[in-house]
Structures are given as structure tokens and as C-alpha cells.
């Protein structure tokens, strides 16, 4: 099959990907850039990784820049998005991918583990959507894609914080999709299952094997599996899709 990015053109569009410096976010950045988008790669602390992602984009003949900000800070987000809009004139595609996990059984979960996960995975998306939607509304055009998780749909023991944030993100996606549909802004969520690398690195090989046994497709997903769904939702092929949750989970949850 042809690489998905060779079938879709995002030429002339600007994309902002939060948490683009590693894992799924870096695959999303590369795929959007391969399709012609100017990609702003956000990171919070891994500057060297973000630079590697940008170098990879340039090697592929793409273009973009890196932007450091913490999605948990509304002020940092407002400043960074204003700078991007001043520089590029607009943001056409926003991918809310930045996320963390701080797992633990409820009896032992610290306030900070609860607050950090809610703050990054849910409030962070609120901050950035509040900021970017103003420019999308002015342009009467935009795509917002929020990366949720199977944990937010099915629940996961040891992840009440993460599951609550990701479930909240799905409600947020649907409400915002209804709010912004009249302005031609489409808002969807991609819900990955178990994806190799990134947050799932915290799992042991035994845990991964047990998970694979429950996945109908009998493998963990790749970052590119998720990035392909994001690319599709960013493209003209998804003009009539909003408020949806697209599951990329090998059938783990149906
Ligand atoms: P990684 O841990 O590999 O990468 C997380 C990214 O988020 C990094 O680029 C990190 O930047 C960034 N980030 C974290 N906190 C902040 C912040 N406060 N502000 C800005 N950027 C931040 O994660 P994955 O690739 O595994 O996950 C990406 C998304 O996919 C997450 O939302 C996750 O919940 C979701 N997901 C992942 C699954 C998996 O199996 N991997 C399954 C289902 C969902 P830096 O390094 O600079 O801190």
C-alpha cells in the first residue's frame, strides 16, 4: 500500500502538535509534514528530541519549527500560540497529543499524581483549544484532534487519574465539536490501544504479552498506526466527520 502521506496533501496548512518530541507525537509530526503541512513541534523538556524530530522532517523535504511550552500553563500556551499565529497567519490543524501517566492504586495515589495527570491530559487541552479556536473561528476553518485512550473508554485498574482524564477528553471533544461545527471547525478524538514505545514502555514484557493475547489483531500498535488516523482526520477525506472517537486499538475495545 502507498504510504498514507503520499495520498493526502496538506500543502499550505500549518499544524501544531503538542508533545511532538517523542512517541506517537513525533510520528504524527512526520506524517503531517510528509503530506506538506508546516509542522510546529511542541515539547516541554526534551529539546534534543524535538530537534531530532525537526531534523527528520527537514530530511524528508518537509518544513516546520519547534516550540517549547507547558500545556499546563494557560499563559505559556497563549503566548506560544500567539507567536505561531503571528508568524504563520493561522493554525489549521491542532493535534492535542501531550500526555502523561502517573499510575497507582487509588488508596495510595498522591494528590499530585491525580492533579498532574488531570492538569496535563485534560486542562492542557482546554488551554490550547481556548487559545487556538479563536483564530480558527476567524478563518472559518480548522481541525482539532484529541488523543484519548482505550483507558478512557474501558477503564484500567491503577489508572483512575488517567482514565478519568481521557474519558473527560472524549466528552470535551463532543461538546467542542457541537460548539464549533457551525464555524466549519471539526473536532474528533483518536483513541489508541496499546502502542509500542512511549507511555507503554512502563509495562513489563510479561504484561505486554498478556495484553497482546487480548488484542484480536494479536499485536501492539505502532505510532504510525495512530498517526495515519490523525492524518486522515486532518485531511479533506474527513470533511463530514466531527465529534467522533476513532479507535486505533487492534480490536482491543469495540
Ligand atoms: P510519550 O511519553 O512518548 O510522549 C509524551 C509527549 O508529551 C512528549 O513529547 C512530552 O514532551 C509531551 N509532554 C508531556 N507533558 C507535557 C506538557 N505539560 N507540555 C507539553 N508537552 C508535554 O507518550 P506517548 O507517545 O506514549 O503518548 C502520546 C499520547 O498518546 C498521550 O496523550 C497518551 O496518553 C496517548 N496514548 C498513548 C498510548 C501508548 O500506548 N503509548 C495508548 C493510548 C493513548 P517532553 O518529553 O518534552 O516532556
Helix content: 40-55%
Q: In angstroms, what is the radius of gyration?
A: 17 Å
CATH class: Alpha Beta
Q: Do you know the CATH topology?
A: Rossmann fold
Using the 3D structure, state the CATH architecture: 3-Layer(aba) Sandwich
Q: What does the largest sheet look like?
A: 7 strands, parallel
Large-scale geometry: globular
When the domains are counted, the total is 1
Strand content: 5-15%
Distinct small molecules: NADPH dihydro-nicotinamide-adenine-dinucleotide phosphate
| Spatial gap, N to C terminus | 25 Å
- The residue ranges in which pLDDT falls below 50 over 5 or more consecutive positions are none
Task: Calculate the mean pLDDT score and round it.
Answer: 96
Give the beta-strand count.
Answer: 7
Number of helices: 8
Judged by helices, strands and strand pairing, the structural class is alpha/beta
Spatial ordering of strands, largest sheet = 3-2-1-4-5-6-7
CATH homologous superfamily label: NAD(P)-binding Rossmann-like Domain
Q: Secondary-structure element order, as H and E?
A: EHEHEHEHEHHEHHE
